[in-house]
Design brief:
about 35% helix, Rossmann fold, 10 helices, Cobalt-precorrin-4 Transmethylase, domain 1, 3 domains, 13 strands, alpha/beta, five-stranded parallel β-sheet, single chain
Length: about 325
């Protein structure tokens, strides 16, 4: 008799609309222009996705000056880029397409709007994350990055001055609440974004994990170690009652011995991880254990972002 495991599947999970659109844009560019198509930075933070696109003819670079054949199109990643990047692309005479997630573009517009009003802008986010680098590169004035409550206390800004804040789209909803509270405690006049900047997909995936974490001895988050939304899901699982939570970057190499003394496993996939990896993981577990799969009913996400017409054949 094989060992029995109870599996709790979080839903929603997997690709969000912005990731879907970015990947589609690379595929459409390959269809329209043939190989190779260049991509600046990983289109989304997922090795499986990146390797697949490489096999179809995408070449990934970190900077535009690495592009060997300047006659080929280049796509900017879903995380967004500083203003200097499209400017450089024009100087180099490159044909470029911007796959920045529309929800990240919304934050870029907010930053510009606040800057026009001469408001100092605080950005809640993770230093050196490509989305943060992109957002900070939207205006010439300094944007004040804060990663935690402590950073807010050390801001070199006048407490009486009117200030504005924005946030990275893939943060922990809980952590961000505390930081926003601290900003409001420290400054008398705070202008907020019209709508919450943390994107719907990040919020939904974190909520789905919260619902099932306390049932789980072990929580598996399929994602990448350089993916902010993946790492936040691991934290949420731990904070909401799962005894252990780990990031699974490579489904094939997961060590099955970790499940020896446990019965209940939670599984989710981050917003940049495809559902096929969940299926692969379940197949691997099915081959070794007797699975009882629980998946709660959940509201399917029906958000869709269009691929630009200029990429359609």
């Amino acid at each position: 008799m094989s060992k029995k495991l109870n599996i709790y599947l979080a839903g929603p999970r997997g690709f969000c609309a912005g990731v879907d659109r970015a990947i589609e844009m690379v595929k459409e560019a390959l269809k329209k222009y043939g190989q190779p198509v260049y991509v600046r930075h990983e289109i989304v933070h997922n090795k499986y996705v990146v390797e697949n696109l490489k096999s179809e003819g995408a070449i990934f670079v970190e900077e535009l000056n690495e592009i060997k054949d300047k006659s080929r199109p280049v796509i900017f990643s879903a995380h967004g880029v500083p203003k200097a990047v499209p400017e450089e692309a024009l100087k180099l005479n490159l044909l470029y397409f911007d796959a920045t997630c529309p929800l990240v573009s919304k934050i870029h517009k907010e930053v510009e709007h606040f800057d026009k009003k001469d408001l100092p802008v605080i950005l809640i986010g993770h230093r050196n994350h490509p989305e943060v680098i992109g957002t900070m590169g939207q205006i010439k004035n300094e944007i004040y990055l804060v990663e935690n409550v402590e950073d807010v206390k050390n801001l070199p800004l006048d407490k009486e001055k009117k200030i504005a804040y924005v946030t990275q789209t893939t943060l922990s909803v809980d952590d961000t609440k505390d930081i926003i509270k601290e900003i409001k405690n420290n400054f008398i006049n705070v202008i907020e974004p019209k709508k919450n900047d943390i994107c719907y997909a990040t919020t939904n995936r974190q909520e789905a994990v919260k619902k099932i974490a306390s049932n789980c001895d072990y929580f598996l988050v399929i994602g990448a170690s350089n993916s902010s939304n993946s790492l936040r899901l691991v934290e949420v699982a731990k904070n909401y009652g799962s005894k252990k939570a780990i990031l699974v970057e490579d489904v094939d190499s997961i060590n099955l011995n970790i499940f020896e003394n446990i019965e209940n496993i939670g599984i989710t996939a981050s917003a940049s991880s495809p559902e096929i990896l969940v299926k692969k993981l379940l197949d691997k577990l099915k081959n070794n254990f007797d699975l009882n799969i629980n998946e709660a009913h959940y509201q399917k996400e029906n958000i869709y972002f269009k691929v630009p017409d200029s990429l359609k054949n």
